[in-house]
Amino acid sequence: MSLRVGVLTGTRAEYGLLRPVIRAIDDAPELELRVLVAGSHLLKPTETWRDVERAWPIAARIEMQRDGEVGRLSDARALGRGTEGVANAIERLGIECLAVLGDRIEALAGASAASVGGVLTAHLHGGDVAEGVADEAMRHAISKLAHIHLPATEASARRIASMGESESRIHVVGSPAIDGLRGIQPMGDAQAVEIGDPEALVLFHPIGDDDDIECSRMLRLLEALRDQRVMVMQPNFDPGRAGIIDAIEQTHAATCAHLDRRAFLSLLQRLANRGGVLVGNSSAGLIECAALRLPVVNVGERQGGRERGTNVVTVTGESSAEIRAAAQQAQSMDRSTITHPFGQGNAGARVAEALAEVAALGAGARRSLLRKRHAEQIVDRVAT
């Protein structure tokens, strides 16, 4: 028997994580792949859906966010459009299982459409903690909607189980973010010079505050790095983005709207080899950089509570002096001692194996996966 699996991607960063998963699903004879593209992939000027299309046929494009519409209520309206769009794609394509990753509104739209629509839902990177943004609540909501859990770490698996999810549905697969990193070569001199040959890479996303607050945060961060060659990656499309862009423009910092996944990783490897540092609040600093042994300064609340490798120096305040001191500490770190909890780099294959087990089930057994017994499990725990 086969299982028609849709994989939903909504952002450039999350697509980078999903690539090995998509490849493994496509390679599995028991699984039929359908790639769904949504969210900020479709927004100008980057239009990163083109990166997806170069690698895989796109089975559906789902409008969510719209150019020029920002803020939490705009995100709520985008969520509604996304839920309807995913539901239509599921029906049209005959998708039997939908895989989503993480905690953003694109993943929530997909999980809502699939779970409410009676379609199996698989969730990667559930059970993580990231206390600094509203997405924290959405991650756990997606876990409650999901029928198959594919967490990255043992700690995340325990959190999912503590929510009343059956342990038989939880498969610890590691993070697909580190799949294939052993083969990454450092960026060459010519390409590095084209982007300013940075000593510090800044990847700093908004946390949903007003633009003026986000702008002030970014100005302090850039002031802290004024003595280094800096390149700034443009932030994601969450509320507050305009403030961060304003700070970049005020300081005339060298910036890059988009690097494809391989170029981004090769730049991280170059920085790791040359005593560089990543500064910001991206999960890439906690996961990919740990696997590549690149020291990182994690600034502010966005990744609060999240597991991380030993490559991370955390700055809870936001003063330039604190960030500058943390960057100096990170760049003097012994890279040879860096460790992380995110698996062995085979997450894509393990996800495909878990879904192939579902494909092998009969129709009745698949239907039984749609019935979850949360309340009974929680009562049993209280009783004991």
Describe the structure.
45% of the residues lie in helices and 15% in strands. With 384 residues, the chain is α/β, with parallel strands linked by helices. It has two domains: 3-180 and 345-383, Rossmann fold (3-Layer(aba) Sandwich), CATH 3.40.50; 181-337, Rossmann fold. Strands 3-2-1-4-5-6 form a six-stranded parallel sheet, sandwiched between helices. A six-stranded parallel sheet has the order 9-8-7-10-11-12, with helices on both faces. Strand 8, helix 9 (241-251) and strand 9 (254-256) form a beta-alpha-beta unit. Helix 4 packs parallel to helix 5 (135-145) and helix 8 (211-224) packs across helix 9. The protein is globular and about 65 Å long.
Question: Which helices and strands, and how do they pair?
Answer:
Blueprint: E1 3-9, H1 12-27, E2 31-38, H2 49-55, E3 58-62, H3 72-93, E4 97-101, H4 105-116, E5 120-124, H5 135-145, E6 148-150, H6 154-162, H7 189-194, E7 200-203, H8 211-224, E8 230-233, H9 241-251, E9 254-256, H10 261-273, E10 277-280, H11 283-286, H12 288-292, E11 296-299, E12 312-315, H13 320-331, H14 347-359, H15 363-369, H16 374-383
Parallel strand pairs: 1-2, 1-4, 2-3, 4-5, 5-6, 7-8, 7-10, 8-9, 10-11, 11-12
Which CATH class of the largest domain applies here?
Answer: Alpha Beta
Tell me the CATH topology of the largest domain.
Rossmann fold
Q: What's the main sheet like?
A: 6 strands, parallel
Strand content: 5-15%
* Total count of helical runs of at least 4 residues: 16
The stretches of 5 or more residues where confidence is low (pLDDT under 50) are 375-384
Mean pLDDT: 93
Helix/strand/pairing category: alpha/beta
**Cα distance spanning the termini:** 40 Å
Proportion of residues in helical segments? 40-55%
CATH superfamily of the largest domain: Glycogen Phosphorylase B
What sequence of helices (H) and strands (E) makes up the elements? EHEHEHEHEHEHHEHEHEHEHHEEHHHH
Radius of gyration: 21 Å
